[in-house]
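Please decode residue identities from the backbone states below.
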């Protein structure tokens, strides 16, 4: 497997994204400073003044998978930046194909405790390239906020041409396919899988999506049985019933349910972050990241596609499909 498609464990000072012919930033740097305020936090369109850099542990080269945090900064109220702390990071794609990364960065106190986590999606990083990004704490905690360090909490990566989308530009397939945040209670996990016809022609479904379960290295996970229906996992979670023919007109949606338990008994637990989804046989693959913690059960229940009568999305035809490269 390409090195770029690996989960990067927590490391102080690490994150990844684009470089062969230079680096890319979220926003322009404030006057007189080389550090930008993250664009979502810049007041009046641009931050003024310079932040105070905070020390980072020294690292020799990028961390595992090419992930590295390159800066941690404290922003004062006079700066015009609407956050107390931001971090710079870079991601280097060491693989052979373009990838989209989801990076979670944790801001830490002097004791090592968590103050806040921030997530950043970095799209379509070409092979051999490095992208620089900034990320900020979600809320201002005031001048007494105790942030002295930053670390990479989690990195997930998918092939750029298989990245899931819930909205925006319609993919060349004419379909948005994505997983929701799901629900967890008493060891039971339930995640909704959604499909939206954003194209210009009707789309027919009849049965179950085709699923491929992948581990942290993007290899096929061993010892997992995919069950038709969710009733052998639990009742009343959705995903029951027999497959029915579903025809989606442009702008209509369908959904199904993934259900599993994370019970751990004898044997090695299975953790498989990724699921490659094909809406039906022959459909273009889309990779979602439901973070399957299957314990030692080895079972994943999937329901049949059903029309989602509650969906209210964008008017079809307003966004043209992305052309195939």
């Amino acid at each position: 497997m390409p090195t770029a498609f690996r989960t990067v464990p927590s490391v102080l000072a690490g994150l990844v994204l684009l470089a062969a012919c230079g680096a890319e930033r979220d926003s322009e740097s404030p006057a007189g400073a080389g550090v930008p305020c993250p664009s979502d936090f810049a007041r009046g369109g641009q931050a003024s003044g310079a932040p105070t850099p905070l020390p980072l542990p020294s690292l020799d080269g990028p961390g595992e998978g090419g992930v590295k945090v390159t800066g941690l900064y404290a922003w004062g109220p006079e700066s015009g930046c609407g956050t107390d702390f931001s971090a710079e990071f870079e991601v280097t794609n060491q693989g052979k194909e373009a990838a989209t990364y989801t990076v979670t960065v944790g801001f830490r106190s002097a004791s090592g405790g968590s103050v806040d986590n921030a997530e950043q999606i970095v799209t379509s990083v070409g092979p051999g390239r490095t992208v620089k990004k900034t990320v900020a704490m979600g809320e201002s905690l005031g001048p007494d906020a105790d942030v002295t360090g930053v670390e990479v909490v989690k990195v997930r990566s998918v092939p750029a041409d298989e990245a899931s989308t819930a909205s925006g530009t319609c993919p060349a397939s004419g379909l948005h396919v994505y997983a929701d945040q799901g629900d967890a209670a008493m060891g039971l996990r339930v995640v909704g899988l959604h499909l939206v016809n954003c194209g210009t022609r009707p789309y027919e479904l009849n049965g179950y999506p085709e699923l491929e379960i992948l581990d942290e290295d993007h290899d096929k996970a061993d010892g997992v049985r995919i069950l038709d229906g969710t009733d052998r996992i639990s009742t009343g979670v959705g995903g029951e019933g027999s497959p029915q023919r579903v025809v989606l007109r442009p702008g209509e949606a369908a959904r199904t349910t993934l259900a599993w338990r994370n019970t751990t008994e004898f044997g090695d637990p299975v953790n498989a972050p990724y699921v490659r989804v094909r809406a039906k046989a022959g459909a273009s693959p889309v990779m979602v990241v439901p973070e399957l913690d299957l314990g030692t059960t080895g079972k994943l229940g999937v329901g049949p596609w059903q029309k989602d009568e509650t969906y209210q999305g964008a008017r079809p035809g307003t966004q043209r499909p992305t052309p195939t490269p």
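Observation: The first strand starts at residue 11 and ends at 12.
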